[in-house]
Write a structure and sequence with these properties.
The chain is 21% helix and 41% strand. It has one domain (4-135). It contains three helices and seven strands. It has 136 residues and is α+β, with helices and mostly antiparallel strands. The chain has a seven-stranded mixed beta sheet with strand order 1-2-3-4-5-6-7, covered by helices on one side.
Length: 136
């Protein structure tokens, strides 16, 4: 199965402790959504972006096969609403624990797959065609 954008079911809110994660990360979200690959037990959730001169810097929560990773990327993008859009991701930070360092290439490949599926804003995406490129 591939990554898909969807609202998180009540069963998955419970399974993954989404309410507790939201409280811990101070993310008010009464109707949470994610980009998820249920089969491979991975998901990507947008957390926030920085302000002012770093407003293109976005932080995500990437759950990878039982491990929570914090990911920060700089995003450049463009296109038209309800049309063709593009995003370019430059990695700023990826918090991989030492125990998973040997799997870093696999983690990055899966993260890129998640960003491709995420499009420009997950379930709220309105693009008819989307291109994602990466500098990592």
């Amino acid at each position: 199965m591939a990554f898909v954008n969807e609202y998180i079911s009540e069963a998955d809110v419970e399974k993954y402790g989404i309410k507790e994660i939201n409280l811990k990360l101070r993310k008010p979200n009464p109707n949470p959504d994610w980009t998820v690959d249920h089969e491979r037990d991975m998901y990507l959730r947008y957390l926030h972006n920085e302000r002012e001169e770093h407003s293109n810097r976005h932080t995500y929560y990437f759950y990878w096969k039982g491990t929570a990773l914090m990911v920060t990327v700089d995003i450049d993008g463009g296109g038209v609403m309800e049309g063709e859009q593009w995003r370019h991701y430059t990695l700023w930070h990826l918090g991989i624990p030492q125990t998973l360092k040997p799997l870093e290439a696999e983690i990055i490949a899966d993260l890129k797959d998640a960003f491709v599926a995420y499009r420009e804003f997950g379930v709220r995406s309105d693009s008819t065609k989307h291109t994602a490129t990466f500098s990592f």
